[in-house]
């Protein structure tokens, strides 16, 4: 039983002599649905890479804690079963002639594609089909990933992330490249995923992506946590104007949040 998705204390990442994440301290518990919001280059995807163990803190001292799912050290493939990831890097990796169905099946192996040593069982096939039905993409299962639209492609990658029934689904810029209708539909999918007891961490720079199930928002600015709190307390015009360095007004209507 996992208690904490993240316990980070004084975590820093340095690249090219620049601190791109500065003394990050944050705890995320199981059961929370979170948005990470911040402008381009604020460190959101770097934070995701710490979470997925693609990178580690650049240095540690007595005050540094960097635990993911209650542990400091993880076998990556084991972690993949607890945490489903959909990022632009993964979308890029799957940009070849692999079918949607094969992509979903590859989620069981945490691999980019299916290989001869992968034993696909009848149980896996059944689960993959269930997930494609859930995502409403079964009719596209024989299409190649490199000719799908961005929205279709993302849905297959989400189905791939969900086959191993992760505790948490982490999405980096899920509505990038999606038109308004596709973004709206995407939010419905997210709501459905949360309703089926998978928690979501959604990294974005669009307030439109914030669905009612998201209770907490963590704002990143210049490699630091600028605000962290409940959406209804922290998401306001003043904080957004400071976050994006431009005067904006937040509107909340029945479609969700908008910035003007
Ligand atoms: N390997 C690297 N070497 C040098 N600089 C890097 C490296 N990786 C990231 N950076 C820099 O760190 C900063 C944060 O990058 P990151 O990708 O985490 O931002 P982001 O908040 O995800 O931005 P976006 O919204 O554009 O995706 C950027 O200035 C980026 O150029
Ligand atoms: Mg990013």
Main beta sheet strand tally, sense and closure: 6 strands, mixed
Oligomeric composition of the shown chains: single chain
Strand order of the largest sheet: 5-6-7-3-8-9
The count of strands amounts to: 11
Bound molecules: adenosine-5'-triphosphate, magnesium ion
Shape: globular
**CATH overall fold name of the domain at 75-166:** Rossmann fold
Mean pLDDT, rounded to whole units? 94
Order of helices and strands: EEEHEHEHHHHEHEEEHHEE
Explain what this protein looks like in three dimensions.
The chain has helices spanning 44-51, 76-82, 88-93, 100-106, 122-134, 150-162, 180-195, 231-234, 237-244, and strands at 4-15, 18-29, 34-37, 65-68, 83-86, 168-172, 199-204, 216-221, 224-230, 250-253, 256-259. With 260 residues, it is of the alpha/beta class. It has a domain at 75-166: P-loop containing nucleotide triphosphate hydrolases (Rossmann fold), CATH 3.40.50.300. The strands form 3 sheets. A 6-stranded mixed beta sheet has the order 5-6-7-3-8-9, with helices on both faces. It has a 3-stranded antiparallel beta sheet with strand order 2-1-4, covered by helices on one side. A two-stranded antiparallel ribbon has the order 10-11. A hairpin with a 2-residue loop joins β1 (4-15) and β2. α4 (100-106) runs parallel beside α6 and α5 packs across α6 (150-162). It starts with a strand and ends with a strand. The model has no long low-confidence stretch (mean pLDDT 94). The protein binds adenosine-5'-triphosphate (ATP) and magnesium ion. Magnesium ion is lined by residues 44-45, 172. The site of magnesium ion has 3 residues, from α1.
